[in-house]
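Exam revision sheet. Question 4 asks you to relate a sequence to its structure. Input first:
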Amino acid sequence: MRKTITRIKAIVKNNKVTLSWYKNNTLFNDASTDEFDNFRIYRKEEDFVFGEDYEEFFLNNDGTDAKLIFQGSLEASNNRKYMFEDDSVAIGLTYSYFIQTKTSCRMGPVPVRVRDPEVWWSYEKMMSRLRNLCEQSNGLARLSVCGRTVKGRDIPCLEVGSGSKTLGFVGLIHGGESGPELIIPAISTLLDKSPGLFQDIRIVAIPAVNIDAREEMAQGTPWYIRTNHQGVDLNRNFPAQWETIEYGYGLDSSDTSAVTYRGSQPASAPETQAVMSVFESNPPDIVFSFHWLASICGLPAGASISAKDDAEYALKCKNIIKSFAKGFSPDLDFAEHWFAFFCTAGSLSSWLYDFGKIPGFDLEQVDNQDAKISRVDQTDRALILDYQERHTNALKEVMIELAKT
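Answer key, C-alpha cells:
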C-alpha cells in the first residue's frame, strides 16, 4: 500500500522531540490535493527495555492504542517537508510516534528515547567541553584531530602536559557505552586542583571514537548501538590475533550481520586507524579503554587474553589496577576479580600488547546495583557525578604511581 508521506524521522534535542516527514513523490506535485490539510499525530509510551530490546520491539505496531497529541494544519517548507515539535516528553522514557493524513492509515512507528544530555553527551557538548578545558588549562592542554569517522566527523585528540610518561584514555569504542562524560571531567578537575601532576605525566585522550553511533543514541535511537556505520565492531577490528574468530555473545566475529563483526580486514575502519595513529606515533605507558553501558564503567579491568601466560606483564598490569582501584574504590580492599584477561582478538588492549606489551585495559563494571541501573539505561545525574569523582581519584592515583617508575 502506497503511503502519503515518507522519510519520517524523530530527533531529540534539548529534551524535545522533533518529528519531520515529507510528502511522497506522487502527491508532492499534486497542487489540487487536500490530503495534507489536517494532520493527526499520535504518541505511545513504550515499555522498551534497553539492552534486552532492539529494533524488533517496534515491529507490527500499528498505533491503534496510541494517543492523539496533535490535530491540525502544518506549513510545509519547500512545499514538501513538515516538522512538528513535541515538548511534553519526559527524560528516560521511550515513545513511538504515528502520523496520519486525510485518507491514510496511521504511519509509523517512529521510535525515540529521550535521554538526559548530561548523562549522554552529544558531539556538540563534548567538543564544547574540550575547548573550554583547553582554554582554562594555562597552556597545558592541546586539542587536535586524529582522524574522521565513517560519516566524516572529526575525532578529537586531547594532549595534556609534557611529561616523559604517557597515560592514554580511549572512550566510546562502542557508541552505547562510556567515555567523554568520565574522561573529560576527570582531566579537567585534576588540571584545576592538581596541575603539578602534569609535570611528570602526559595524558593523551581520545574521549570518543565511535562518534557516529553515539550521536544517534544521543538524538534518540532507543536501542544499544555497538558498531560503527560500516557495521564494524571497532573492538574486534584492531590488527591483533586476526586469525582468531571470536564467538562471544553467541555471535561470530567473521559474520557481517553480527554486531561483533570484525571488519573485512585488520584496521579497515577509519576510527580504528585514528586510534592506532595516536599510539603508534608516541607509544603510551598505559591505556584505559572505557566500556560498560550508558556512560559509566569501572572495574573489573580486562587485559588481552593472549597475555595471560606472560607473568611479568600480568604482575605489571595487576599493580596498575591496584593503583586505579585505590582511587576508584578507596573503602574496599582489592578484589582479585577486579583484574582479568578477557580482551579478545581484535581488541584495542590486545593490539597494545602485540604492539609493544603496553598495559591496556578495558574498563567494565562489576555486577552490582550501579551495573543493573546502567544496564537498562537508567543512569542519572547523581550516578554520573559519583563516577566522575571516582574516575578523577583513580586517574590521580595512577598518575602518582606512574610518575614513580
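Marking note for examiners. DSSP finds nine helices and 15 strands in the chain.
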